[in-house]
Amino acid sequence: MNQQTDKAILVVSFGTSYEASRKVTIEKIEQDIRNAFQDHRIYHAWTSKFIISILKKRDNYTVPTVKEALEQMITDGIREVVVQPTHILDGIENNIMKEEVLSYKESFDKIAFGTPLLADSKDESQAINAVTTEFSDLKETEALVFMGHGTTHQVNTVYAGLDQKFKESAHANVFIGTVEADPTIHDLVKEVTSFQPSKIYVTPFMIVAGDHAHNDMAGDSPDSWVCQFENAGFEVCPIIKGLGEYPGIRRMYVEHAQKAIDSMK
Fold first, then answer.
1. Any idea which residues are catalytic in this one (predicted)?
2. Which one, 176, 226, 257, 264, has the greatest CB density within 10 A?
3. Is residue 180 part of an annotated ligand binding site?
4. Span 205-235, pLDDT tens digits
């Protein structure tokens, strides 16, 4: 970290209570940004106060909130701030975070925001390329099913659009649904059943492989995605791997931070 500069990048994540996943996802994204922007000081913050408090109690591991990180930057004499979220969509969580940062705008000379992972159709194509590269040995008879989070925000339509885009980019055997919105697991079971795959791989379309991946996706309860596909008669293999583990996805966050830096010039 360059201690002399008054320029900083604040990397903002939702957070996770799964240490192993944190180390290979959130921390790797932060490290890639640190490596790419050595003329900036790098700070981090999480938006989930619930997860922050779990880690503090359980592991005595402290992560600052967005507010705490900004206060620290003021103390450290930072004047120009780029905020790079590791969120996937510009939804509720990202909007609340932006409002919180902008409440500090009088304390800095410049503030710019990097976009979340999927901000436009170019991002979508790039993300599809990044994830399908990781599954290049997927057979045409096999299905790859991604579990997205989903949101009540209108931006949720990105998931259905992405599913369509996989198909249009010659990946007819790749599907994406969400835990908390549409497309649902019931939609997916119908869609995947009509494809009749020889085997199904399920994996998170989330930055970390946390609770949703371990429980909603790969858990033992009858509601889990693995169990629902098995009940539909398929052989299912869960892959507990967050998007933050994919080099191509991490590279996108670095590029988004670079764009935000360029916008300040």
1. 149
2. 257
3. yes
4. 999 999 999 999 999 999 999 999 999 999 9
Measure the CA–CA gap between 159 and 5, rounded to whole angstroms.
40
- Same structural domain for residues 145 and 218? yes
Cα–Cα distance measured from residue 171 to residue 133, given in angstroms and rounded to the nearest whole number: 11
193 and 152 assigned to the same domain: yes
- CA–CA distance, 105 with 81 (Å, rounded to integer): 10
Query: Does residue 68 lie within any of the structural domains?
Result: yes
**What is the rounded CA–CA span in Å between residue 72 and residue 69?**
5
Give the chain's length: 265
Contact between 68 and 102 under an 8 Å Cβ cutoff? The reply is: no
- Per-residue pLDDT tens for 3-54? 678 999 999 999 999 999 999 999 999 999 999 999 999 999 999 999 999 9
**Surface-to-core class of residue 218, CB atoms within 10 Å of its CB (0-12 exposed, 13-18 middle, 19+ buried):** buried
Strands (E), 80-169: 80-85, 110-113, 143-148
Q: So which residues are the catalytic ones? A: 149
186 is in an annotated binding site: no
Phi and psi of 198, rounded to 5°?
Answer: -75, -25
CA-CA distance, 66 to 35, in Å (whole number)?
22
Ligand-binding site membership of 212 (annotated): yes
Distance, in Å, from the CA atom of 168 to the CA atom of 130, rounded to the nearest integer, reads: 16
Mean pLDDT, rounded, for 91-112:
97
Distance between CA 108 and CA 262 in Å, rounded?
Answer: 17
Domain containing residue 44: CATH number: 3.40.50.1400
